[in-house]
Amino acid sequence: MRYSVLLEPVNEPEFQGYYYAHIPTLDLTTHGQGIEGALAAAQELIEAWIGEKRARGETVPVEAKSLIAQVEVSDALLRP
């Protein structure tokens, strides 16, 4: 089973080089140092989360299809 992971850089000075890892299908987020660290943290979180769900007899969501898109907004909207 595969789950999509969306990576975004953490924009805080004390976490330079870190990335957020979002797992949309499971509504989970973690972080790690560098892309590899963030993906490793996501893997660990997913496996632990699935283990907890199974231990409780709960169903685990299966990712049917994942699409990532972007929308563009005017730069003027971002100016003070």
SSE diagram, text form:
Blueprint: E1 6-9, E2 18-23, E3 28-33, H1 34-55
Antiparallel strand pairs: 1-2, 2-3
The overall number of domains is 1
Largest sheet: 3 strands, antiparallel
Shape designation:
globular
SSE string: EEEH
Helix content: 25-40%
* Mean of pLDDT: 94
SS summary, helix count: 1
DSSP summary, beta strand count: 3
What's the CATH architecture name? 2-Layer Sandwich
Q: Briefly, what CATH class?
A: Alpha Beta
Q: Strand fraction band?
A: 15-25%
Q: Give the uncertain stretches in residue-range form.
A: none
| CATH-defined topology | Double Stranded RNA Binding Domain
Question: How large is the radius of gyration?
Answer: 16 Å
- Provide the spatial order of strands within the biggest beta sheet: 1-2-3
Structural class: alpha+beta
Short description:
The chain is α+β, with helices and mostly antiparallel strands and 80 residues long. It contains one helix and three strands, in the order βββα.
Question: Can you offer a commentary on this structure?
Answer:
This protein is of the alpha+beta class and 80 residues long. It has one domain (6-78): Double Stranded RNA Binding Domain (2-Layer Sandwich), CATH 3.30.160. The protein has 1 helix and 3 strands, in the order E-E-E-H. The chain has one helix at 34-55, and strands spanning 6-9, 18-23, 28-33. It has a 3-stranded antiparallel β-sheet. The longest helix has 22 residues, at 34-55. The radius of gyration is 16 Å and the shape is globular. 11% of the residues are buried. The mean pLDDT is 94.
